[in-house]
Amino acid sequence: MALPLIIDTDPGVDDAIAIWLALAAPEIDLLGLSVVFGNGHAAPCAENAIRILDAAGKSHIPVHVGADQPLQRSYARAGWGVHGADGLGGIGLPTASRKPDGTNAVAWMAKLLSKAAPHSITLAPIGPLTNIARLLQDHPTARRGIKEMIVMGGAAAENGGNATPHAEYNFWLDPHAAEIVCASGVPITLVTIETARPVSATPARIARIEAANTTIARAVADLLRAYVHESKADALFDPLVIAYLLQPGFFKKRHGHFRVVAGNNAELGRLIVAPSSDPTAHTLLQAPDPDVIFDFLSDRYRNLP
Ligand SMILES: [Ca+2]
Known about the structure:
Residues 5-278 form the Inosine/uridine-preferring nucleoside hydrolase domain. This is Nucleoside hydrolase. One of its GO terms (molecular function) is hydrolase activity. Keywords: Glycosidase, Hydrolase. The structure is a single chain. Helices cover 35% and strands 17% of the residues. It is α/β, with parallel strands linked by helices. It has one domain: Ribonucleoside hydrolase-like (Inosine-uridine Nucleoside N-ribohydrolase, Chain A). It starts with a strand and ends in a 5-residue tail after the last helix. The site of calcium ion has 8 residues, from loops. Residues 9-10, 12, 15, 38, 126-127, 238 line the site of calcium ion.
């Protein structure tokens, strides 16, 4: 049976690449997309989520809009930053074919998870953790339905951040939510900046994806070229969450207890890992072999239009 999955997302270039990887995988049953602010405000992120599904011929998959602000901080970002004028690299993806579904993302997830078999649905949060923190806090009966979470967020190394020297962008945007999720007792496997940094989209690796020569493979190549051009950085973050679900053997693991600094100081959003051999502790993924990842993506995108 295919793995039932919810992706909580703020698309975003690397979100698009991750969502397409999930759609290309027969092992995954994508139940829907839960949208959160992050790379942009929640409404345009939801529009992008629908554009991503449209491009893959999967417009029927539900898209629900959730939080547009962090739990306690204010969201002051004006634009899309490194994700291009429309948040999807300006590569000319058509406008959204429809509006998002009516129910709030957190209420939608809560209903689905409360009715599901115990420990059956996997969550893949690849934006700020605001929706997930609300889900866990406000809907205690939903937790039972969660199997595990594979999260993109956090910088585990000293001065390894990309939002500040200490903090990764998703955790920094809503550190209070990240702390709630890490302390919730739900098993978390984390793709950090350190996991992703070596997985760089070099011109040769982008060309390997393009060689799959499908509409989606060409779009991924265009997105990566736009992203590398804008950001001057080239690491693939969000797609590693889905790659791990499909091929856990690509990644070595460490275990540890996670904390996130939510106090209002220079270290706001910092991930603190206390290493532990306790198998019930959270899991930190080590960097995979980048060439293996890009070959895998190229191979999988052949399954889409
Ligand atoms: Ca994201």
